[in-house]
Specification:
Elements (H helix, E strand, L loop, with lengths): L21 H17 L3 H15 L22 H13 L1 H4 L7 H14 L12
């Protein structure tokens, strides 16, 4: 774990590069949180939470407000990454409050939820029936 997780919270998904891919990063956080809870391993749990906190800093607030595929400038937004982050924020809300100002996490969850709804396509002609 110490080899791949930086103290700032990101999981090195591509060790030969400065780029972090958010999908595997969030899966690593999910696994660490789960193993931390299941095995009562506080260091895994804390690393997973720190990784989730770091991922919130990667949300593109300047544009639509979703999570990009990777940390490289100009990377496209991916709804699956945004959904992963949203799920982890909801599941770990009470423990993550130490990283955020009062009610900030709830507002952040609501913003991500609203962003995901923008990807919803209603049934209808030409709409993926």
């Amino acid at each position: 774990m110490k080899i791949f997780f930086k103290l700032s919270g990101e999981f090195e998904t591509n060790p030969c590069s400065e780029i972090v891919y958010l999908h595997p990063h969030l899966y690593a956080c999910d696994g660490l949180i789960y193993s931390g809870l299941k095995q009562s391993n506080d260091s895994h749990y804390a690393a997973g939470l720190n990784g989730v906190r770091w991922a919130t800093e990667q949300v593109d607030s300047a544009s639509a407000g979703g999570l990009r595929r990777k940390t490289r400038k100009g990377s496209i937004e991916q709804s699956d990454c945004t959904a992963q982050l949203l799920r982890l924020l909801i599941l770990c809300r009470s423990k993550l409050k130490k990283y955020f100002a009062k009610s900030e996490i709830d507002n952040f969850i609501e913003r991500l939820h609203s962003r995901l709804l923008n990807f919803y396509i209603q049934d209808g002609q030409g709409q993926g029936e």
